[in-house]
Design goal:
This protein has 2 domains: 45 residues, no CATH class; 94 residues, Immunoglobulin-like, CATH 2.60.40. It has 184 residues and is mostly beta strands. The longest helix is centred in the first third of the chain and has 14 residues. The chain is elongated and about 110 Å long. The strands form 3 sheets. Strands 5, 7, 8, 10, 11 and 12 form a 6-stranded mixed sheet that branches. The chain has a 3-stranded antiparallel sheet with strand order 2-1-3, covered by helices on one side. The protein has 2 helices and 12 strands, in the order αβββαβββββββββ.
């Protein structure tokens, strides 16, 4: 109950700096705070301390670090990420998935920055809307050879791409007859 009253007082002090706050006890014995007390109760003014005002300052760059260090976190060719790579593919690039479900991840160095998002492309087509998640689950990927790439977006603009990763999906085909020895 005390945190509720404290919050109520805090809100009341912030929203009504120029108005009076009154306190009275209702018929159930609960304290009530208001800026407009009912006329049928004995409400007493509450003396609130002045609100605390905190002035925000922009932090200064620590000694030994220059503004050019931000540029150094970029890749050598000026791109915002030193590493944009798809991970989770098997070493032989063959995925055995009878249900066609494939789970992959993206490695980003440095981490995804605010305002940036990722778009996954399977065979050159987006597989989902852009996202900030570095994980991807593809469902019902058909058998065969596929190309996967991830793009880093700033709004709708592509600012960087991963290398194209080629992989093969193997799925059991239920309609095929099993291999039988040839009849003599």
């Amino acid at each position: 109950m005390r945190p509720f009253l404290f919050c109520l007082l805090l809100i009341a002090s912030a929203t009504s700096l120029a108005s009076e706050i009154y306190r009275y006890t209702d018929e159930r014995g609960n304290p009530v705070f208001t800026n407009e007390p009912p006329s049928h109760v004995n409400a007493k003014p509450v003396n609130l301390p002045p609100p605390t005002i905190v002035e925000l300052r922009t932090p200064e760059i620590p000694a030994g670090i220059s503004a050019s260090d931000e540029v150094a976190s970029q890749s050598a060719d000026g791109k915002p990420y030193r590493v944009v790579a798809i991970t989770g593919l098997p070493q032989d690039r063959t995925i055995r998935a009878n249900d066609g479900r494939i789970e992959l991840n993206v490695q980003l160095v440095p981490a995804l920055r605010p305002g940036h998002s990722l778009r996954f492309l399977l065979d050159g087509e987006p597989v989902m809307p852009s996202t900030t998640s570095a994980s991807l689950q593809l469902d019902n990927v058909p058998r065969g050879k596929h190309n996967l790439q991830v793009e880093v977006l700033a709004g709708d603009k592509v600012i960087q791409r991963s290398a194209v990763e080629t992989f093969h999906v193997q799925r059991v085909a239920l309609g095929n007859a099993p291999n039988r020895p040839a009849k003599p």
